[in-house]
Automatic annotation (TrEMBL), chains A, B, C, D:
Chain segments annotated as transmembrane: none
Keywords: Amino-acid biosynthesis, Cytoplasm, Lyase, Metal-binding, Methionine biosynthesis, Zinc
Name of this protein: Methylthioribulose-1-phosphate dehydratase
Gene: MDE1
One Gene Ontology term, aspect cellular component: cytoplasm
UniProt domain Class II aldolase/adducin N-terminal: residue ranges: 20-223
Length: 236, 236, 236, 236
């Protein structure tokens, strides 16, 4: 594929093209404090293509030409096979280290986007909830959360359960434990990673962003409540 | 009504036209943390027309063409009658679920705008004030609050009382309890909804926004005071 | 004076003209949370003219045409004399209620600007320091503070003292107690008003803004320290 | 050197030219609360030239023409020799008081940028960690930190150690103690200054900014953890 063919995959006048959305959303997430220090990011899948930001770059300064495009589906890379790309940026860049984790959301939830944040609300939630679940009920924002493959809405009276997995020195090693948690909790709207952050997904980029905002709001209010000595789960 | 007639209701060069104001104010509210995760919003009434944002959309990305226009006054929808619109956006959108609650402010207070926030300051206030009232006195910001139908200003020495109602699984069910609280507290400048947020209104969009900012400031400082062990109501 | 003559006092291409600066700085202060709900603001004096924003308007939406211009010096209004203006906006607006308090800074400190904030850091400082002084030492930011008529810099080892006066139901009544505090504390860089906010000044608009930022930073860190049980004044 | 020759050193259409980057980054840092009240800033070195902002100016309002350019390397000024400049702004400005401290990073770490913040997270960290080291382990963000001359990455399991030096009344006096700490801690990614802030560096402007964000995130979460009674260093 020639370079100009490849660029055509990420150059578009449409502000809603994934290669335009990823830079814009990452600036948004930077202002929310989710992706400072090059951490965090978003992967978007539209049909048979996945768009992913580079690893180790300032997330609020990504440009469309920095975006990787990958065919979907594809098998995970192995000792004998590499990851397949439709486009690599013409720079010395590597795809986001979150790629295998985003893939979990695409494969196990048919997600159209997956967002990874280093939000301090998420990290504090994993420090104050020492077990393997963050739980909260009786918050209006819970009604914004969609769970399961059919995107079912929760009720205000439902208890939201977000599984917490343990962090690992290498991000690649998170892939299996995240997948395991997603299978054990088929209704999970996201996965918390202890002392690290959260992965949240949705059927498209809008739903992914909305879910990330709802969950982060709930992590934040949950942390405030626990620190104020208020229980977060009310038995109805 | 033809589509172009309908669009004329929301397309205007005037930045103060309600269909331009709603998108701008919602971006403002997003930055304040009031309307993340598609929650919250604002309804504006100018004379015999009401302008309302859609339900379930990202509030910071609303466009004028997304705005619903409704005639005012009109009876609440019933099992036999639908809500009446002058304009529906040509998209698969539903009007904000807050519509009946905004209507409370228009009907019971002759309000020109009503703002709904999911502000964490409001939610924390409803968690720390477990009864049916949030109260605070001796704060300069209280002087910014307008109460009652005649928009009377409060004194620095007055005690501001904001009624707190219980949240319900369905937003429609809040309409009656909000109306009841507004009648029981004719001087209320807004209504808090436990574990949910706040509804605040004003005689026009500016007053509504100003009132929402004053009250949110007072919820925030009230929460800080209570958490620091400082009483919020001083007996003069 | 004709309307066009009057407009010439506030219409300028120079971004540093006071009538352009006041709107810009108020947007800045809004983002800092200092002037929400129409509270707070800034008055600028350049030579024999004082520029002041209107009362009761959204501070982040002021336009140059909204600015009042007053001759300086002039006597305070009395039962028999009105305040004198070079320009009033052609709208139903009243000058900021802070005008007499800004005048204190112009007259007693020869200030070129005076900023009033409702910052919650300032209010919390007045709640946690129950006496008539806020004090802090051994903070690098103290070196940014300028005190006294000769704009002397403080040392890192100095104790910054900011007098706290009691709030009054009417802002006009604050004028005398603020003036008294400024005379009693000739080195004060600003005055805190209990349960209300702060007044801070400087020899020009830049110095006023810088001083307001330094003091607000010190109120914020002081509140955090006291809440963490750390004393704010170290005996050297 | 004529004035136009001198201006050529700071006027460029390239947004990544240091004289364009410094103003932009300082606006960014202002929004993060790192450089209010004229405090803090950034120095950038590209090859044999160092670019530095003025002292005592509003950091969010710097223009390219305000930037100082210095040849690198050069000896520290002494009683008999002045600092050497390739360009001084044609205004009554003095170079940032941080210049000798930035020089430490350039000389001892071959840094391409050095950032100084007055972040309250950094100051609170120095108040809650009363010894000479801030330490934290088991945080994903630690993996973003680069240590030592070869920019080695830390593991999630490593303990990050940031030395804390005591503040001094005169910034010049910090130069030696900062250099001493950098030699004693060859793997330090930055230096905290008690009751003052932090100095952080990187091999170029991007790495410096990234490191400053990573460390500030860790100071913030460390302070939150300690205040919640959670130990920040886990023994593996």
């Amino acid at each position: 594929m020639s370079s100009s063919d490849s660029d055509a995959l990420v150059l578009s006048d449409d502000p809603l093209h994934p290669a335009n959305l990823i830079p814009e959303l990452c600036r948004n997430f930077y202002q929310l404090g989710w992706v400072t220090g090059t951490g965090g990011g978003i992967g978007i899948r539209v049909g048979d293509k996945v768009y992913i930001a580079p690893s180790g770059v300032q997330k609020e300064r990504i440009l469309p030409v920095h975006i990787f495009v990958l065919p979907y589906p594809q098998a995970a890379p192995s000792p004998h096979t590499d990851r397949v790309f439709l486009r690599r940026p013409s720079l010395n860049l590597k795809e986001s280290a979150c790629t295998p984790l985003f893939w979990n959301a695409f494969e196990l939830r048919e997600a159209g986007s997956c967002i990874h944040t280093h939000s301090q609300n998420a990290v504090m939630a994993t420090l104050l909830w020492q077990g393997k679940e963050f739980t909260i009920s009786h918050q209006e924002m819970i009604k914004g959360v969609r769970v399961g493959g059919v995107a079912r809405a929760l009720s205000y009276l439902d208890t939201l359960v977000v599984p917490i997995i343990e962090n690992t020195p290498n991000k690649e090693d998170l892939k299996d434990s995240m997948a395991e948690a997603m299978k054990e909790y088929p209704n999970a709207a996201g996965v918390l990673v202890r002392r690290h952050g959260a992965y949240v997904w949705g059927s498209d980029w809008e739903k992914g962003k909305t879910q990330a905002e709802c969950l982060d709001y709930l992590f934040e209010i949950g942390v405030k409540m626990r620190q104020a000595g208020i229980t977060t789960v009310v038995s109805s």
